[in-house]
Amino acid sequence: MKTTIDIPEELLAETIKHTGAKTKRDAVVTAVSEFNRRRRLEALAERLQGSCPDFMTQADLRRARQGHKWETGR
Domain extents for the chain? Predict the structure, then answer.
């Protein structure tokens, strides 16, 4: 789809730098794709939150890294 939009030059230059894109179009497509991917992952994380009780919590992971045994059955 062809669309004309006004994107601030500084913002577009930074996007090109971070994406490594060769063209402005590639930079915008990459940025939009990445934005959409992150939103889908956020929605998935919300949907799955609390549904996998056997997964390690951040506290469990910290204890495991310190050499303590991971205990289930919270």
Answer: 9-65
